[in-house]
From TrEMBL:
This is OmpA/MotB domain protein. It comes from Emticicia oligotrophica (strain DSM 17448 / CIP 109782 / MTCC 6937 / GPTSA100-15). Its main location: membrane. PANTHER family: LIPOPROTEIN YIAD-RELATED, STATOR ELEMENT OF FLAGELLAR MOTOR COMPLEX. It is found in: Cell outer membrane. The keyword Signal does not apply.
């Protein structure tokens, strides 16, 4: 990590600077404050705009530049983060990495400033500016030792080829299905490829961190994570997936009823309640009064939601918290947000990736019953979830 004299935001760090080809390449890491216990630090940088989901968004200003020795070097492009006016939503506690390309610094410039924009009190967007970034960029550049050998251009785009098969884990025979590959630093960015009739697949991707999910009819899904972000040259990877066939249940004779009706009734009672298409209510999720801590008798219904997420790896949800109108509206909104966050944390602790679960807190703004009665207030204190994919 380069030495930096000063910066306008300590949520964002410059982790590395490279001078390659025609570019100065700056690597960033961004992470907003993680919740700790019940004391959450939620900051909303866009006070004058509608708050969406977590309320946090990031983007990069294409009018940015770096300067050194009195000369400006223009912005070229960025990866892993959108350009203004587009915005990327982020979640507290999760780390986001992105790369920004500028024009190549002249040899000998070993200290520069990176200016994204001028911060004004009236503006809702906070720009990231870095002053006195120290790098190794000597005036005398060492020439290549062997100019006869041809080498790939350093500024040439690197692409990785992933090739493999879907294979039945019991018979070792190829099967027909598909492979979904998702960019870990951006949950919305994904694609998939179908196999050939012989179970083979191939596709090209950029060197980033990915999760691969292989699926086929009649088989359990399987997934693998690969961090390819540090690769700096194009190459081929062989990655086959072994899928387990789904075992068919043996039906018992209809005359045999081993499960008492009362048990089945209890299971039905603890299922999430569908209130409209793709939207469910968790009516058996409980918290301490006025607090956001989950009570243990919530786990049975949350495990029902957990099973839904594990059965369908493509399912992404938004957890929504609601309160009654007792107390200040701002406190109710904070409480509903913290409760939704804690539901999300429980699901993550059971193995669900964080990028599949967004969360919102609506406070007392969306009642479903009369807040003038205790029964109505009880109904308004609720947690719901919406399936978005």
């Amino acid at each position: 990590m380069p030495e930096i004299d000063d910066q306008t935001s300590y949520e964002t760090d410059i982790t590395k600077v490279e001078i390659r080809g025609n570019n100065t390449i700056v690597y960033f890491s961004y992470q907003i404050t993680q919740a700790s216990g019940n004391n959450y630090q939620f900051q909303f940088p866009y006070q004058n705009q509608p708050r969406r989901n977590s309320g946090y968004t990031i983007s990069f200003n294409p009018k940015s530049y770096i300067n050194g020795n009195g000369k400006r070097f223009k912005y070229v492009k960025c990866t892993g983060i959108p350009e203004l006016p587009e915005e990327k939503e982020v979640v507290p506690g999760e780390k986001y990495r992105f790369i920004v390309y500028f024009e190549k610094l002249d040899p000998g410039i070993e200290t520069f400033n990176l200016i994204e924009g001028k911060n004004r009190p009236e503006d809702s967007h906070k720009y990231w500016n870095f002053y006195g970034v120290h790098i190794n960029n000597p005036l005398v550049q060492v020439p290549p030792t062997d100019t006869k050998k041809s080498a790939p251009r350093e500024d040439e785009e690197v692409m990785l080829t992933i090739k493999g098969k879907l294979i039945d884990s019991k018979t070792n025979k190829p099967i027909v299905g598909k492979v979904l590959y998702r960019y870990d630093f951006d949950a919305q960015k994904s694609d998939s490829v179908k196999t050939t009739p012989t179970g083979e697949f191939t596709f090209k991707i950029k060197p980033e961190a990915y999760t691969f999910i292989a699926s086929a009819k009649g088989y359990e899904n399987t997934q693998e994570s690969m961090d390819l972000s540090k690769l700096d040259k194009s190459q081929l990877f062989n990655q086959s997936f072994y899928l387990n066939p789904i075992e068919k249940e043996i039906k018992k004779p209809e005359t045999v009823k081993e499960t008492p009706k009362v048990v089945e009734s209890k299971k039905e009672e603890n299922k999430p309640i569908m209130i409209e298409e793709n939207k469910f209510r968790l009516d058996k999720v409980y918290f301490e009064i006025g607090e956001s801590k989950l009570l243990p008798n919530s786990y049975e219904q949350l495990n029902g939601l957990l099973k839904m997420l594990k059965d369908d790896p493509k399912m992404n949800i938004i957890v929504e918290g609601h309160t009654d109108n007792v107390g200040e509206a701002s406190q109710n909104k904070r409480l509903s947000l913290e409760r939704a966050y804690n539901v999300r944390e429980y699901l993550i602790s059971k193995g669900i990736p964080g990028y599949r679960i967004q969360f919102k807190g609506y406070g007392d703004t969306k009642p479903i019953a009369d807040n003038n009665t205790e029964e109505g207030r009880k109904q308004n204190r609720r947690v719901e979830f919406l399936i978005i994919e």
